[in-house]
UniProtKB/TrEMBL annotation:
Pathway, per record: Organic acid metabolism; glycolate biosynthesis; glycolate from 2-phosphoglycolate: step 1/1
Protein name (record): phosphoglycolate phosphatase
Reactions that this protein is recorded to catalyse: 2-phosphoglycolate + H2O = glycolate + phosphate
Gene name, Swiss-Prot/TrEMBL: gph
GO biological process per UniProt: DNA repair
Species lineage: Bacteria, Pseudomonadati, Acidobacteriota, Terriglobia, Terriglobales
Single GO MF annotation: phosphoglycolate phosphatase activity
């Protein structure tokens, strides 16, 4: 089963959806923890903390998910160290998931008028740098990060902004119902739901367990599944 009509806008999460960045994020968190004399955390634990932005990732790594244990100055120091380290090491081990570029090219070929964008909770500068490095930027008219707006996903503000911008580019109104959010966690599913858009959940990403409790409209076990879900014939595209 696939979506009944061609979407006008497809918005992708970044980490766990287009790229596997878990090793570089985990290494950067553990470098920050070591700098502040904290014990390292296992990679699977840190990977489970990814998805709600850099600040929340650092808070969780410090054992402070609600922000009520450490003072803000301390959290800011750790966050700054983490971001500085990650800025240098963000491409050490990060890679584009197999099938992502093929699938984006197939979508572009089949539906040249369908716009695509990135909406991630990762800070916008590393997001754009990573997409540029891997040749992903050419597919997207916009790339917004967790610090692009006053709120982060699952608040729908970023997605609704992209819908408005896409409508301006297209010269006609694109509705949330004509929009699909593709991501690997409940954060992306809720973002779509809060905006009135449709969702595809990626089970190959960093938080597949969260898609069980917050199920998307469709599940993709690999990036090439996006094409099947969208009803795009890979051979003809």
């Amino acid at each position: 089963m696939h979506f009944p009509t061609q979407p006008r806008l497809i918005v992708f999460d970044l980490d766990g959806t287009l790229i596997d960045s878990s090793v570089d994020l985990c290494n950067s968190i553990n470098a920050a923890l070591a700098h502040f004399n904290k014990p390292p955390l296992p990679e699977p634990v840190i990977a489970g903390y990814i998805g709600d932005g850099a600040s929340m990732l650092v808070r969780r790594a410090l054992g402070d998910p609600e922000g009520d244990v450490h003072d803000e100055e301390y959290v800011t120091e750790v966050l700054t160290y983490f971001l500085d380290y990650y800025r240098i090491h963000k491409l050490d081990f990060t890679y584009v998931y197999p099938g992502v570029i093929l699938s984006l090219e197939a979508i572009r070929a089949a539906w040249p008028d369908t716009l695509m964008a990135v909406l991630t909770n990762k800070p916008v500068n590393p997001s754009r740098d990573i997409c540029a490095h891997f040749g992903l930027s050419r597919f997207f008219f916009q790339n917004y990060g967790g610090n692009s707006f006053h709120t982060k996903k699952p608040d729908p503000h970023g997605l609704l902004t992209l819908i408005a911008e896409a409508s301006a580019i297209a010269g006609q109104t694109i509705t949330p119902a004509q929009t699909i959010m593709v991501g690997d966690s409940h954060v992306d599913v809720l973002t779509a739901r809060n905006a009135g858009a449709q969702s595809i959940g990626c089970t190959f990403g960093l938080a597949p367990q969260s898609l069980i409790t917050t199920p998307p409209d469709h599940l993709a076990n690999a990036p090439t599944d996006w094409l099947t879900i969208l009803g795009i014939n890979q051979r003809s595209s």
